[in-house]
């Protein structure tokens, strides 16, 4: 069974953050954060969102919903993010076995190489 309190504690400790500091950043007191970490209380949605923003993780991750095929692009700049979206859209339903890449696919891959090699 998923341990929400442990997830919060691990995220907080991995960033060398005290319960007091996390509480300050999400508008809650140190004892309330302690209650979350000890699974005594569960935070309301707005606090969950604040916690996910503090740690830069998805709500799914925060509450234990593991998506093995998820790709997170939030650390990319806008150009890189757009290229990754194009790449996904173009290749997600594509079976390339024995086929050549289309001009569009070649262009997307070229954009990808240029952008990521220059950054």
UniProtKB/TrEMBL annotation:
Gene3D superfamilies: lambda repressor-like DNA-binding domains (1.10.260.40). SUPFAM superfamilies: lambda repressor-like DNA-binding domains (SSF47413). It comes from the Bacteria. This is Helix-turn-helix transcriptional regulator. Keywords: DNA-binding. PROSITE patterns: HTH_CROC1. Residues 8-62 form the HTH cro/C1-type domain. CDD domains: HTH_XRE.
């Amino acid at each position: 069974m998923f341990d929400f309190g442990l997830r919060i504690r691990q995220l907080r400790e991995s960033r060398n953050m005290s319960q007091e500091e996390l509480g300050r950043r999400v508008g809650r007191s140190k004892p309330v954060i302690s209650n979350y970490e000890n699974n005594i209380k569960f935070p309301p949605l707005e606090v969950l969102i604040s916690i996910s923003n503090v740690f830069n993780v998805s709500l799914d991750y925060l509450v234990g919903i593991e998506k093995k095929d998820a790709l997170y692009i939030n650390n990319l700049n806008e150009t890189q993010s757009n290229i990754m979206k194009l790449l996904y859209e173009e290749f997600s339903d594509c079976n390339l076995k024995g086929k050549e890449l289309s001009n569009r696919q070649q262009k997307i891959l070229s954009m990808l190489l240029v952008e990521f090699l220059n950054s």
